[in-house]
């Protein structure tokens, strides 16, 4: 399927384009059974998704890669139709570890390049085999890091052809400025992946990113799963919001579709996660209706400035 600039993609500053609709592939390893990422990606490609949001620490890149390769082999898509985003995890920030981390992702996916590679968090953990290192008292083991040096190692990966575009995730304005103002900057971050949905609309960060040609990719666009081990349950469930429910009724859509459409209409790329075939289809059926200006404004007013994903680390 051709990606149309109008509906599925917006141009990135380096000439590549990013599909406006993606499938998040984080399936909680404790709750997700083996093979569900593989099945989900295959269904999603058949439905029309082309953008897949993955990461080494989602522990299913082998499944996602296998599904993508099989759909290329059976002629459904070509490699260049797919937009895969991988992430540099916190234990790989020292410059010497950056390329090996990306190469590990490529080897697991069995692909020659990723389309986008992003710094997952602007903080570093102690390098080593443990992805979540803590001391005997349960305190996180951080690592002295220089984000600019990490960025230069990423630039070298792009120059070597391992990745088409570079980006970041969970960066605030100050951290973005650090990269953008880096002397000798060779490749700008093209995107910033952050939590974004009607209860956390990110107006200031959005404005800054738009001014600087950085695409906002909105994660947890449906308000996440309600998993108390990592989700702030003080925030009420987004999909039960009264206004979203009433707008959804008006268009004969679901609240999930309205939440996704809201972000799409304001230029935010959405990466809803679902491993359920019906919901994968449902989440893609958002290109056949549009919200009015008044509805957009009313949904914007739902902003509570509360994160579902608090990233307590
Ligand atoms: P989300 O997409 O907002 O919500 C996912 C939850 O909603 C799942 O429990 C899913 O269950 C359910 N769901 C999906 N479609 C639905 C629908 N139409 N109606 C009702 N429920 C629906 O949250 P997320 O998983 O936190 O975020 C999405 C993706 O963003 C992740 O997969 C990951 O790729 C990325 N992410 C990145 C970061 C980061 O730090 N960069 C952080 C968090 C997430 P089913 O699977 O059963 O449908």
Determine the mean pLDDT. 93
Global geometry: globular
Instruction: Report the end-to-end length measured between terminal Cα atoms.
Output: 40 Å
Structural class: alpha/beta
Helical coverage, percent range: 25-40%
How many DSSP-defined strands?
10
Q: Strand percentage, roughly? A: 5-15%
Order of helical and strand elements: EEEHEHEHEHEHEHEHHEHH
- Distinct bound molecules: NADP nicotinamide-adenine-dinucleotide phosphate
Cα Rg: 19 Å
Describe it.
The chain has 313 residues and is α/β, with parallel strands linked by helices. It has helices at 36-47, 61-73, 95-109, 147-159, 173-180, 203-211, 242-251, 255-265, 277-284, 293-300; strands at 9-11, 17-19, 22-24, 51-53, 83-88, 114-119, 163-169, 191-195, 215-219, 269-270. The strands form two sheets. The protein has an eight-stranded parallel β-sheet with strand order 3-4-5-6-7-8-9-10. Strands 1-2 form a two-stranded antiparallel sheet. Helix 1 runs parallel beside helix 9 (277-284) and helix 7 (242-251) crosses helix 8 (255-265). The protein is globular and about 55 Å long. Mean pLDDT is 93; it is low at 1-8. The structure holds NADP nicotinamide-adenine-dinucleotide phosphate. NADP nicotinamide-adenine-dinucleotide phosphate (NAP) is lined by residues 24-26, 53, 120, 169-170, 193, 219-225, 239, 254, 256, 271-276, 279, 282-283, 309.
